[in-house]
């Protein structure tokens, strides 16, 4: 079996985690395991540290383990933020390294290096191996107690650590108290493998011979916030001149401050720099008693035992324990310690008592005996091996049950696909890549990380800081910072980078002004101008602007290939002879799907497929080329099965070069799948590239195809740009190709009357259009639980008032109008809360807006939630709000979530737009208000909040409408009848 260990410290460093895991790895190797250690190069302070290694460089450890190096972080300062930044760098480096090594049977990641939790979590998923999270400290509790709660990283740390703990097959702690705390939080299983000492390397010492009144006190270890070493220095100042000598050896974030305190008190402590292992023995020889300290005001330290405790016990030295809780109890049981409170005078009194009696620090070997019985790292390592073997044994049946054919080959292809995708984006638009990566992080991580990055400024940090501002939605600050850079005369190349970031957030005017100031010969300027043109829809201008050489040439080819798909390109496939479709078999060709996204698109698709299956159809689905790997799911399998529905993936190791070539590639791969699945009908959804592919395949095998128009994507694109977008190349070509796709299909499905009317205007035969509106099923058809019960399930205060939405958080949803409306109501309604459930590009800006309006404490934004929680979030609200902006897309496209809200018996307030008027009967199931009018929305909210009987009546009317007119079962009948009208009468006969 094979172990992958992710740690922040390993040989040749000399640290507690290194000593622990060097011993444990010996146990694994003796048990026959192969071991890969993923760790950064040794800290440059280590005496025998080699020169920094390159990323991925491999060496062999003392037990035959392979040590794979990540990036060095030695350039970061020895501060809390510096160490954390270093841990982030190490964890980022661990990802490509961990993906490159042989597949492990189990992944172990060690905390307190917090980003390691994320790296281990990701790698265990990517390598399909079980995860063991080792918690060497009580994180994230310690983060709060250390005051990190006041910083922007606290929520990110808690989310990462808690998420990894819950994802792990087993969590290992070093104390029983913290294990109990985790179990009380619903985390499990949790086992304890305490810290210890390598007894073969730690030799017991006889007590030092000393006279009465003499005492040598040693503190050897970390000088950080956790130890509260000010107490030791003040106690030492109290015993100056009494024959008691105090020595402190080590380093840490608080060392400079402690040195200054010691100097201010007259240097009562001999403060020495850290030493290597060979010199540690000299200090133990000198000492009569050794201090073990943890500050008592941090509650987590009641469940923490300093790792140095075990080495001191093994050496046989007496311990002065300035500890509480589990650590104090351990020292009492050892019979080799005296305990003092964290009070300088009482600590000084203990030392005076010990000094007076030379026999008081003679432990009689009791500490060594306790260590042999309880803290032998060799025996503890054997225990960890047993835990790992159990985890692997329990995981194998699960893995076998879900294993897909040729998964290792598929994962290798996924990695190759990811690498080429990242390389392509880095070349084309690195600023956009950075933003896209940040937006795919969990909301609890993304927000704090973006705020942290936004603080970066000056010199080379300006562009990372600009990306942070963009990710945080602080667009006005981004614009101001970019304009300031231009006014200061920053380098032209830096202004080009600013322009790229501005373009990625849609501030094209400022981007254009910056690029106008830049010398035309500046590297990257032409590419930035082309990106600006492309963003504005000036597709031909963007292509013409670029030269045919180097990076510009590659960008020109890429944009030109995409332009070709807008100007008439079609995939070409030879006819397949002898194709024989299976009766009542349908294959849906999709953009995305469950289980890798819970979007409304995916929910609608799954509801349709399950309803068709229940109606007697053999249905399956396949997602677009490269999905979901290109959006970050590295461990995607060739097929996912959800509720009995198979979702196939098209995941080649490499995508063809160019947008048009990729359409051809997807058509060829889809044809191979169709040959295997043998559907009688193909069914796809917007946009037109899907239609081009499906039409080519359908014609090749001679079966009908259906085009489902779920949105007007050209209008969606234009809605985030100015009015000129409606006259741009992209918009005009986009709308024409969409109309052409709909006219070419054998049948068209759409969601509402407004969209049906648009299709008719585009030349689609009304007889070919079938209306299948968004609907509900499953739990939404059940009698809804009470509002109070839903709130209790979600941890919401049942006594407060909640208004809000469950939605994709994107600009055209108009949620800024809702934030402003709640801000108007807030002063007179202290119990009012705004609940925004979902995620998207607009969320950071909404959080920032709430902050500026003074209602950040009223906003609850849990981010994207599990689809099983969606019904409770709907039911928890007093009023459900759909405040969409007024645009072509919102006037036509009907969303799913308000239908679910009505089914949940919630009154719905929506913008007065044609598409939403199909879903909300004004004054009956809810209220319609003018779009983009916070005042009118606030008035409507106030009316329903002040009249709960009216609100309840509207909710009940909405539920009656939803469960009688908007069910997936009813839609399945429409699909069933449509398919039967298209499929040949005789099963197995293809179309001419």
Q: How does CATH name the architecture of the largest domain?
A: 3-Layer(aba) Sandwich
Number of strands: 28
Q: Note the overall shape.
A: elongated
Could you list the spans in which at least 5 consecutive residues all have pLDDT below 50?
44-52, 148-152, 398-405, 985-992
Q: Main sheet: which strands, in order across?
A: 3-4-2-1-5-6-7-8
The CATH superfamily of the largest domain bears the name Glycogen Phosphorylase B
Give the terminus-to-terminus CA distance: 57 Å
The figure for the number of domains is 5
- Average pLDDT rating: 89
Total helix count? 40
What structural class do you assign from the helix and strand content?
A: alpha/beta
Q: Describe the biggest sheet?
A: 8 strands, mixed
CATH class of the largest domain: Alpha Beta
GO molecular function, one term: hexosyltransferase activity
Protein name: D-inositol 3-phosphate glycosyltransferase
Keywords: Glycosyltransferase, Transferase
In short:
This protein is of the alpha/beta class. It has 5 domains: 2-192, Glycogen Phosphorylase B (Rossmann fold, 3-Layer(aba) Sandwich); 215-367, Rossmann fold; 408-566, no CATH class; 586-622 and 654-771, Glycogen Phosphorylase B (Rossmann fold, 3-Layer(aba) Sandwich), CATH 3.40.50; 783-966, Glycogen Phosphorylase B (Rossmann fold). Strand 12 (289-293), helix 10 (308-315) and strand 13 form a beta-alpha-beta unit.
